[in-house]
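hey so i finally got around to running the thing on that chain from the lab meeting. sorry it took forever, my laptop kept dying and i had to restart like 3 times. anyway pasting the input first so we r on the same page abt which one it is
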Amino acid sequence: MALILNIETATKTCSVNLAKKGLVLVKKEITSDKYIHGEKLHVLINQLFQSSKIPMTSLDAVAVSSGPGSFTGLRIGVSAAKGIAFALNIPLISMDAMDIMIQQYKLQANDKKNIYFPMIDARREEVYTKGYNVKKQPITEISCPEINELFLNKYDNYDEIYFLGSGASKFKNKFSNQKPIIDDHVLNSSLGMVTVTYQKFNNAEFEDLSYFNPFYLKDFKIDVKK
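ok and heres what got predicted. didnt touch it at all, straight out
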């Protein structure tokens, strides 16, 4: 039946959905600057099953955003997903946050050679990002670069450079030339997981419950007030 619980907690958006055979049955999500994943994630998951009248024991798999993104959000999301998968003895599926974002973005068809960078804020002038072509295929690795003229110059061979998602908003007034094109609509939602996690389920692309951990990319740092 392929009933999958999708969990996305990489940013300030806490988002979950139930999907059957790649189609969304019900979705719940909250966005808050206070990062309320610890308070709301399990509440939202319970609401999914209550509103759909589907028992949790009917799940065939649980899928989760692996990151990068919010350290706390990722820890909470992955812990919940692993706990459910272990308790129900069902597979765990993961999907990185950049892939989730690009799946949510509606590309406009044209004949240009473009590159698309979904972005999650990583503080200062850095973002978590990965480059994609017009077919939503990754053409760079996930990284955490500083976004400046040097970064843009690396992609001068592209007709248009797109910065996508809420993480791109801080660069709106940074560059004087026409590049990049910035679309800062929020793209962090479990809806971006549905098609890919269904494909992964059919291909048995599962994670090892014992060893799977969030992909943080950067080391966790605590700012000490002087």
